[in-house]
Amino acid sequence: MKKTIVLIASIIIGLSTVACNSKKKEAKTEAQTEKAQNPVVARIAELKKAGYDIVDYHGHLKGGLTMEDLLEHSKETGIDYGVAFNAGVGFPITNDSTLLANYEQYKDYPVYMAMQAEGREWVTMFSKENIATFDYVFTDAMTWTDKKGRRMRLWIPEEVFVDDKDDFMDQLVDKIVGVMKNEPIDLYVNSTYLPDILQPEYDALWTDERMQKVIDAAVANDIAIEINARYKIPSASFIKKAKAAGVKFSMGTNNTDKNLGTLDYAIEMIDVCGLEPNDFFKPSKK
After folding, report:
1. Does an H or E element contain 48, and which?
2. pLDDT by residue (tens digit) across 148-182?
3. Any domain includes 184
4. How far, in Å, are 13, 17, 86, 150, 158 from residue 223 at the CA level?
5. Domain annotation covers residue 1
6. Which listed residue, of 2, 138, 253, 282, carries a Cα 20 to 30 Å from 231's Cα?
């Protein structure tokens, strides 16, 4: 009797395991089918056939996302990846040893390796030799100190100080130009980002003159500008002006969780702004 009970229990457990695995497989198949039917994924396939390199140069292993997850997503969508590691004050990477440790951990995966430089202090925190280990380096001007000595992180509302909108914008543009001129980067990301308090006036505050100053600095310093899918920036107007000036572009998500998306805004801007394959950045090391 005991043997019979054990046998029946084993059969039940086995059937439960098979059912569970079957459900997982079905769920995965449904997710793959959903992505395959995504019109953006279909457009990505068309663009790749036409000679475009579709690369998200601004991916992060955050929110529980593993490298294996990222590579599976890449396989399903056709998007290649650059994986970025945040380095600077207040981040896990603050010196050469932690910078290289991250590089060594992931260097053998089929992705580009990127250093995301944070704040303006980063140039003094890492050696040129170790910075050069990465396929490319990028930064933004979302962290800076204003004329009153207030250090701001623009994505945190309580750390943003706007006494006068035009003065704030002029300071921001000067910071962006200074970053492009003085920091050894390949890409400028989160390109025309504004803090929440100013977002509703984006088009008015990003005047032609301000856009042109940033574009001129990018051209003068051979820096590509990111088309960011998360924030949907820069505007089509900016992109068209930058293209006419000879600026190169990159595509990026800047994900904070497992949702890598499918670069929808960047793909849209290719069509809206008439971007060609040679308008896009390519790392020189690979």
Report:
1. helix 39-49
2. 999 999 999 999 999 999 999 999 999 999 999 99
3. yes
4. 59, 54, 19, 28, 31
5. no
6. 282
Q: What is the pLDDT of residues 55-68, one digit of tens each?
A: 999 999 999 999 99
State the pLDDT at residue 17.
Answer: 57
- What whole-number distance in Å separates Cα of residue 133 and Cα of residue 268? 33
Q: Which of 155, 76, 121, 112 is nearest to 252 (CA)?
A: 112
Domain count, the chain: 1
Residue 172, CA atoms < 13 Å, CB-side half-sphere: 28
Q: How confident is the model at residue 83 (pLDDT cuts 50, 70, 90)?
A: very high
Peptide bond into 234 cis (omega under 30): yes
- Whether residue 9 is contained in a domain is answered as no
Averaged over 228-240, what is the pLDDT?
Answer: 97
CATH number at residue 173: 3.20.20.140
188 close to 226: Cβ distance less than 8 angstroms: yes
> Contact at 8 Å (CB) between 269 and 227?
yes
Whether the pLDDT of residue 21 is over 70: the answer is: no
Overall pTM surpassing 0.70 (yes/no): yes
Using a 10 angstrom Cβ sphere, with 0-12 exposed, 13-18 middle and 19 or more buried, the burial of residue 276 is exposed
Give the tokens for residue 84.
């970025």
| 15 domain-assigned | no
Which residue segment(s) compose the domain that 138 sits in? Answer: 50-279
Q: Give the CA-trace dihedral at 192, 195, 200, 202, to 10 degrees.
A: -20
DSSP code of 143? E
